[in-house]
Amino acid sequence: MLSLKLSLLFLVLLLSSTLSSAQRRKAPAGGKLAVVVDERLSALRDTPDLRGKLLRRLGRGRLVAIRSTKTSHDGIVFYLVNVTSRTHGWIQRDAVVSASRMGDDERLFELIERSSDFDRIARARIFLNHFVKSGFRGRVLLLLADTAEEASGKLTRDAAKRVDTGAPIHSYFLNYVGLDRYNRQGVGFVFDEVAQRLHYDGAALRELLRRYPKSKEADEARGRLLERQ
């Protein structure tokens, strides 16, 4: 009986967690859609002021709906946003971007260039998901691919520390927990049996060649793929 109750409790908690995640992904209504890209500035406040009461901190990738704009006494621009049907507040404009706002694709691209490692990949993925017609997409795809390949060296070293002899060696590398957050961003890796190391699988490079075959970035992508052969 106790075992059954524990199982039911686990199922309820699992369903609750799933519903909560779905709610976080759902786009709120009531304004122009925007997405959080800089969690360093993503404090949701009750007034349009940096000293306003903190309501919560919004995570990168969180969708919000912009209702209005106001500039504080010290020149900081704030958006009044809906986070859910019941939650709203003021957030610094620099923390979010919107595909409906001219120039926000360039602003996010510049933030991606200033970023590094996993932060760059996560912001690149946001860009690719939300700015589907931007002229910066080719450059973002190339940045994502190069950053993922750079990350593969450290991931290889970390995964190698956990290799045992109880299973095929490549399975330890490709099951390495450090890959999980990259996989959630749509970034995959392959294992080179000869070099005994991970490499980025090149998906962004192939997408770049498929979508923008005549671009300058496509020429660079071809070179990257040739290096792998």
Average pLDDT:
91
Order of helices and strands: HEEEEEEEHHHHHEEHH
Can you give the helix content as a percent range?
Answer: 40-55%
Our Rg estimate from Cα atoms comes to 21 Å
How far apart lie the N and C ends? 59 Å
Structural features, described:
Mean pLDDT is 91; it is low at 2-24. This protein has a five-stranded antiparallel β-sheet with strand order 6-5-4-1-7. A two-stranded antiparallel ribbon has the order 2-3. Strand 4 and strand 5 (77-82) form a beta hairpin. By secondary structure, the chain is of the alpha+beta class. The chain has eight helices and nine strands. Helix 2 runs antiparallel to helix 3 (117-130). The protein has helices spanning 2-25, 104-114, 117-130, 137-160, 169-174, 180-184, 203-211, 216-228; strands spanning 32-36, 43-45, 54-57, 63-71, 77-82, 88-92, 96-97, 189-192, 197-200. It has two domains: 24-97, SH3 Domains (SH3 type barrels), CATH 2.30.30; 108-228, no CATH class.
